[in-house]
Structure formats: C-alpha cells, structure tokens
Amino acid sequence: MSSSRHNAISLYKNILRAHARYLPREMKQLGDAYVRAEFRLHTKAKPEHLDGFFAEWNKYLKHVERVGREKQLVDAALIDASQQQQQQQQQHSNNANTTNRRRGFGQDVSADVQFNDEQKEQLRKLREEAVTAGAK
Fold first, then answer.
1. Which end of the chain has the smaller Cβ count within 10 Å, N or C?
2. Residues 6+ away with beta carbon under 8 Å from 125
3. How far apart are CA 91 and CA 104, in angstroms?
C-alpha cells in the first residue's frame, strides 16, 4: 500500500473516530455520510488536488477534536463557571443557529465568500443529506 493511500485511510478513520467520540448522533450520521462521499469522490483525483483536499480535512479533524474536547471539559465541569457562562453568552449572541451553536460546532461563512457552481452543488447535496438525516 502506498504511503499516500495509507495516510488517506488513516485520516479517513481518524475523522470517523472523532465523529463517534465528539459529535451528537444526528451530526455524526450526517458527517459520516459526507466524509464517505467526499473521500470516494477523490479516489481518482489528480495528485495536485489531493494536497489541498487532505489539508482541509486535517483542519476539519483538528477543529472537531478541539471543539469536542472543550465540550467534554465543560461537561465534566473542569472549566470554571464564569468562563462557561461567558462562552455560553458569546455563543448565544453570535447567531440564532441554536442547535449547532449550543453544541459548539459549525461556523458561519463570511458574506463576501463567492462559491463556484461545483461548491454550490455540494452545498445543495449537503442540505438534502441534512434534511434526510433529520427526518430519521
């Protein structure tokens, strides 16, 4: 097995493990389905596209792990009450996107970001998957 293939499989498994460990059930289902689809789509990708693909998924993995650990600390009451209250106030004032915001996952996209047609199609598919997962 080539080194890059081994690294891709390792990254894929680490993302699924992070989902299992840190995400709520409904987010895990959606996240797992999305990761599977994206990694499948990139099995035949050109090498010049893979570096960016893996870099973004590594950033995502670090984000899920960081936010998940922070949530575990809060759940275990290891963060003092004032810091927890401050974080909650900041989360509630940031956005009305309540469910995901309270859990600490998700990120708003800046208004000046422009998506190409392929990205818009991926977002449409993701929205459909989210609706389907929410109906289960």
1. N
2. 37
3. 8
Rounded to whole angstroms, how far apart are CA atoms 62 and 46?
25
One-letter amino acid of 53: F
**Whole-number Å distance between alpha carbons of 101 and 89:** 11
Each residue of 54-89: pLDDT tens digit?
Answer: 999 999 999 999 999 888 877 766 656 666 667 676
Residues making up the chain, counted from first to last:
136
Spell out the residues 6+ positions from residue 75 whose beta carbon is closer than 8 angstroms to its own. none
Return the structure tokens found at 118.
């392929």
> To 10 degrees, the CA torsion angle through 73, 136, 9, 57?
-60
Residue 107's closest CA among 59, 54, 40, 49? 59
**Closest to 74 in 3D by CA, of 63, 84, 86:** 84
User: Do 20 and 28 form a contact (C-beta atoms < 8 A)?
Assistant: yes
Can you give the pLDDT at residue 34?
A: 93
